[in-house]
Amino acid sequence: MVVEIDTQPSRVVATRASVAEAERNFRDPTIDGLYVVQFTPQRLLSEFAPKVYYARDIPHDIQDLMNTSDAHYRRTLMAKELFEALIYQNTFEDEPNAPRISIVNDVDGDVEMTPAWEFHYSNRIWYGDDVPPPDYENLEGCDCEGYCDPESQACSCAQKQKKYSTHLPGFIYDDKGRLTTMEYPVFECNALCGCFEGCRNRVVQRGRQYQVNIRKTTNKGWGIFAGRQKIPKGSFIGIYAGELLSDEEGDVRGTKYNKFGRTYLFQLDFWYLHPQKLREYHSTQPSDKQDEEDDWQTKYVVDAYHAGNVNMRRSRLTCVSFQNHSCDPNCCLIAVYVNEADIDKPLLALFTCRDVLPWEELCFSYTGYTVDDQDGKKGELIPKPQNNGDAVYAPCLCGAARCMGYMFK
């Protein structure tokens, strides 16, 4: 490639309009014959965009090695330490300040020292080949300096948040980085914003802050438990990591998973993505545009079979996860947007929906957490599913006083 450089640029008197146009197109204006290189957030994000990880590149060498090793070795302390080291190695870039995760089995440690070596531990989203990469072109950031003011009319992030949570003042996070409500999507400040990294509207992107451990349970496989400190209500635990797939591919995989008693799929099907429901939220009158609602379909799902973290791994025998199901959960999944302008592709972020005591197991509802008891009252029994022999429709073992009988409808 030959790059031609104008050694005698013409004299240009730069105006505010010409500089703005140059910023939009990443062209450096010239002033008195000198090029003015502008390192704007938009330009940096365009030229040095975060790496996109694809599902076809999920590593599996360590898993292959361990599964072909002697079974006795997989039950040794060395294997446990290797598993813990891999967790740290694969996540320290995403959550550098997170307390390290330990694996504990005081139930049958002589039989199973670690969870099954069948997935790549990761906090990342791995894109399927039929899923477009993150939309940076339409991403918008605020021009705030220092820390964002949630009551500012000039902060575009605060104004965007209000679009989906109109009765709340500014951000959904409080000054300690905790959710104040579980009902709405969260729009965090992003790479294009001018605010500090310590802005109160940057929580998920800073990673987990509380100690959690992976511990074997008596009858539910492996679970995720709080450490020695209480985790306050509204605290971020982690994202639901895995492959981001089209809904069509999710249907194909889901049929297979159901047969052998596991489910790893989570549809990105939040209420505000439905055109009619969003219209009704902003209107005092019910909408009669039913046709648009009927045409809307879920576009994407997250699959944690091949890659995932503490928030979604299912065990081989119990079709539960590190983050086990409970009909009376202490955690819930919230849609969060950071460096993504596509409204159909939020991150699934796990937050505590009540205070979690030290050493308490962290659980969320596989049937969905509802603040106002939508989809049935809490404690209402789920009829035995007509499952055609699918092993995934197993009885619920959560042990909650208000157990609904089954994990899936």
Describe the overall structure.
With 409 residues, the protein is of the alpha/beta class. Helices cover 19% and strands 15% of the residues. It is built from 9 helices and 18 strands. The chain has helices spanning 16-25, 41-47, 61-67, 71-74, 77-91, 156-164, 247-259, 275-282, 290-295, and strands spanning 30-31, 34-35, 53-54, 103-104, 120-121, 125-127, 186-187, 212-216, 222-226, 236-239, 242-246, 265-267, 300-303, 307-308, 324-325, 331-337, 347-352, 361-364. The protein has a 5-stranded mixed sheet. Strand 8 (212-216) and strand 9 (222-226) form a beta hairpin. The chain starts with 15 loop residues before the first helix and ends in a 45-residue tail after the last strand.
